[in-house]
Every structure is written in C-alpha cells, then in structure tokens.
C-alpha cells in the first residue's frame, strides 16, 4: 500500500480519526495537508509528522462549511505540492439537542454545512483537478446514521445520507481516473464521544456485534485501502466499518 510521494489532504485532520489517518498516510510515504479549524493543532501535528516520517506536511486553517475555505485549501495545496492525489473528507459535526423541535435553524444549517456542503465543494474542486491530471482517490467519511438514523442525530443523519448520493454521483462524474468511495463508520471513541452519557455509549455498544466502540486507529486500514491501488477497481462504493451494527 505504498503511497510514496503522493499528496493527501485530510479535513478534520488534527485530532481523533483524522489524526490517525494523517499519521497512517505519512507512514506510507505520503505528503500530508492537515486541515482543521484550529490551525495551532495542525501546526503541532505537522511538526510531529515531519520529524517522525521525513515527509512534508502543510497545516491549513479550514472551516468545512465555508465555500471559500475549500477554494483556499485546494489553492494552498497546489501551491505547496503542485498536485493532489488523495482527499479525505473527514471533518464532521453532530451537536446534541434536547428535542427535534429545539433544533434551531442555525444548528441545522451548521450541521448540513460541515457534513454535506463542505464535502460537495471540496470534492468538486479536487475531483476536477485530479480528472485533468494524474487521477486520484477521494474518500468520504460517512456514518451508520445515514442508513439507521436516530432521533438524537437526525440533521447529521440526513447530511451523511446525502454523502452517499455525492459518492456515487462524483464517482460517475470524474471517472475513470478518479475513484470516490465512502467509509460508513459506526461509533468511534473520538472527541464527539466525550459528550455521550454512559447510557448512550451502552446503547451504541449493545447494537454492535463486536460489543464495543471503535478506536481512532481502527479506521486506518480502510483509509489506506481506498487511498492505494489495493482498491483500483472500487468506486462509488460504501464500506461499513461499524463494529457489526445490527
């Protein structure tokens, strides 16, 4: 699965699953662009990656709900590295709310913006470049909520369901040289999980064949599979990495 000298962009890449992805991609020889709202965290990880693996890294402040931030992220990537080979749309957001009637318009728009609007814009930009150059792989990080929605995360579930549509649509639009796939995640123990109650975590785990939530590092195998030629005949696909959601 060597990715020697490939250029990989990971949104939400400074912590949690995104940080694990950045580390794994760099370990396989890729130069990485770490994009997140808190650029200080990106800069810290950039230093760690360059010292650990000797690859190049770029830290970029990025708000996934901002159209212009997507434009700037691609521009800075091309200015630094001249190309983009891998894009991981990992940035996500699922705020808690007390009831469906209490979901505000601003909360709804923010969730859709981060989880759907951002991946649409960034995939369009990256896919266009890849299709007219050496091709590439785009990986969307989805959720089991897309197919098994809960009342506690309905706007998020709707956005992730939309991501499935974008995956198939972009795969068709930018094929044959660009592959677009989704990793459909179950519950992972990241920053989002810190807001869960013990009861919520127990409910999640009771629905899983493995009877536990995932660790951030357990997303790495699927990301490397889709980023590399190991998945050369796979596009428009959804891969479940959910602990066996029942």
Task: Briefly note the CATH topology name.
Answer: Rossmann fold
Percentage beta strand = 15-25%
* CATH level 1 name: Alpha Beta
In terms of structural class, how would the helical and strand content be classed? alpha/beta
Task: Give the SSE map.
Layout: E1 7-11, H1 16-27, E2 31-36, H2 39-53, E3 57-61, H3 67-81, E4 86-89, H4 105-131, E5 136-143, H5 154-174, E6 178-185, H6 198-206, H7 220-227, E7 238-241
Parallel strand pairs: 1-2, 1-4, 2-3, 4-5, 5-6, 6-7
Identify the notable features of this structure and list them briefly.
7 helices; 7-stranded parallel sheet; Rossmann fold; globular; single chain; 16% strand; alpha/beta; 246 residues
Report on the structure:
By secondary structure, the chain is α/β, with parallel strands linked by helices. The protein has a single domain (7-237), classed as NAD(P)-binding Rossmann-like Domain (Rossmann fold). The chain contains seven helices and seven strands; from the N terminus they run E-H-E-H-E-H-E-H-E-H-E-H-H-E. A seven-stranded parallel beta sheet has the order 3-2-1-4-5-6-7, sandwiched between helices. Strand 5, helix 5 and strand 6 (178-185) form a beta-alpha-beta unit. Helix 1 (16-27) packs parallel to helix 2 (39-53). The chain starts with 6 loop residues before the first strand and ends in a 5-residue tail after the last strand.
